[in-house]
Design goal:
10 helices, 47% helix, 235 residues
């Protein structure tokens, strides 16, 4: 019996399995899908090993935002194991001082007021302005953040504070690579994705229209269509 291709779907900061619900519904019949939520580890190394230890010898890495940062660590540790790479709404640029300051501020907010103190800020921070008032999206983001919890939030921020610039690591990749982002992503802009795609020979850049930072839930149909097409073309 032929083994189905294995997909590791690595979640973003403050999100859980629901981040990929629409994509999973379309892919699970043809692919062996595993979703990874990062709560327990406070380093990129620990998060990368969480995925690597659970996946078969060769697999496709799909990562959104934090899930992309962890992919870069996996490239540094186990590049031969990654047979395809999908980077969504992420960046290979290390944090600039303002971003680091924001991470420390978020840690302080949650330490003082719990995870509920941060949830109201997330839609306006990450979503396309036209999507900020979407009640269903807001409820989903709040539920995912509560699932990650205060300890998970601290661990994720600590790990992200320690991540390096990863363009040189990405330039070592020689497998099919898809780079995808919302055109209006306010956190990891299109220019960052253009730079990542330029690092990998033959990489495809896919821009999702009318979309902010969380493209898999903001424009799920467009993301699922693009991802499914690309996976089938590179199987």
């Amino acid at each position: 019996m032929t083994r189905r291709p294995a997909l590791a779907l690595a979640c973003a900061h403050m999100t859980d399995e629901r981040l990929y619900a629409h994509q999973l519904a379309a892919l699970e019949s043809a692919y062996d899908c595993s979703v990874f939520v990062f709560r327990e580890h406070d380093s990129m190394a620990g998060m990368a090993e969480q995925v690597l230890s659970a996946m078969p010898q060769r697999f496709t890495w799909i990562g959104l935002s934090l899930g992309g940062y962890v992919a870069f660590e996996a490239i540094r540790r186990a590049l031969p194991r990654i047979e395809r790479l999908v980077l969504i709404d992420t960046t290979a640029v290390a944090d600039h001082p303002q971003r680091r300051e924001g991470r420390h501020k978020d840690i302080a907010t949650v330490r003082q007021g719990g995870i509920e103190a941060l949830i109201p800020e997330l839609p306006s921070r990450w979503l396309l302005p036209a999507h900020v008032g979407n009640a269903a999206l807001g409820e989903l983001m709040g539920g995912m953040a509560r699932s990650v919890g205060a300890v998970g939030q601290f661990n994720q921020q600590t790990a992200m504070l320690g991540r390096p610039d990863s363009h040189a690591d990405l330039a070592q990749v020689r497998v099919p690579t898809l780079v995808m982002c919302g055109r209006q992503d306010p956190v990891t802009p299109l220019a960052d994705h253009e730079a990542m795609a330029a690092c990998v020979p033959g990489a495809e850049l896919q821009v999702i229209e009318s979309c902010g930072h969380l493209s898999t839930i903001e424009q799920p149909e467009a993301v699922t269509s693009a991802l499914t097409r690309w996976l089938r073309a590179t199987d």
